[in-house]
Design goal:
By secondary structure, this protein is α/β, with parallel strands linked by helices. The protein is built from 15 helices and 8 strands. Helix 8 runs antiparallel to helix 9 and helix 10 packs across helix 11. Bound molecules: fe (ii) ion (FE2).
Amino acid sequence: MDLFRSATVRVWDTPDLAGTRAAVEAFDCSRPLFVAGAASADALNLGAILDARWPHEEKRVVTGNFAGSPIPAVLRLRTTIRQFAPDVVVAIGGGSVIDTAKAASVLATLDRADAKDVAALWNVWPAPVPPRGHRLVAIPTTAGTGTEATPYAVLSDERNVKLFGVSREFQPDLAVLVPHFVTTVPRDVIAELAMDALSHALEAFWSRKATLSSDVSATTALALLDGYLANYWKSPTDLVAARGVLLAATHAGDAFRQASSTACHALSFPIAEQLHSSHGSACSLLLANVADINLRDHVTRLKLESLAACLGIRGAAEIPSYIRQWRTRLRLNEEIEQPVHLSPEWPPAPLQEMMANNPVRLEASLVRDLLASLVTA
Ligand SMILES: [Fe+2]
């Protein structure tokens, strides 16, 4: 199965969704269903924008709280999609909104779907899901997850355990980047999501599946983060900086679409679950330590030497401290006081793939040492 089809990505520098309208027309679609997080919809005055841009068509707007993409929210949206039968679903929101729309869009083609069916389809590599019956457009209102550019859809079950879906059917047909839309993000969320994007880019760069094309996306993302993140975090309404970090996040997503991620992402999920921390925060705890380990690999070290020059640091050996400095600058000071334990069933198949992509093989003892090294008290 080809997971490597890329989304078309357009950047639209006015907040009126004119670019989205043009793209939807290019798809020859006229029955849109919009899905948005309630907070984003309010902050962006989305109802007025949609009414102005789609005044005559039959359209449906669904808003709600999709945090964590819980299965019940996915199933409710699936029902709405089946009833309304859109020819395009437009997801406007953070990663959870977009992942909910990805999952519901695919499940809408099944005659029946309950939580058990979802559990059976997710955590399989790749997910054995049917083709989507409509177009999918993703418009991120945060800069970090990169899900607008990837074939991943991460959901949560009733115990808040993550389920990993990977399929070309989850890949949006189009991503529209609207820099205005990411200027209302709180600074702590900017910080966590930026570390997620930094992890996507670095992990894709050192992944065993890296290609010239994924390296270009990863390097572009890292250069943009290096250039714009500090200003965006200080002044989220700085449109130039917001634009730079939004593009960085999508380039980073495009990098790991192609090269997948590695041990940092695989281990971030049990850490986030046990510490009740955000995904980006968990990635930020691990990334420098995983970089330390990966520098032991001669070929990876050589590759990282070339990256160091792009980041304005003296050499590959400084990359772990470069990452730690970002944590400090972004005030991500969370520390672990209790060791994280992995269940005997860990990792599920998609995370096994990520562990296998790490350039240094992490045997069980090395994973234990890595998790122990995170404990500070
Ligand atoms: Fe991530």
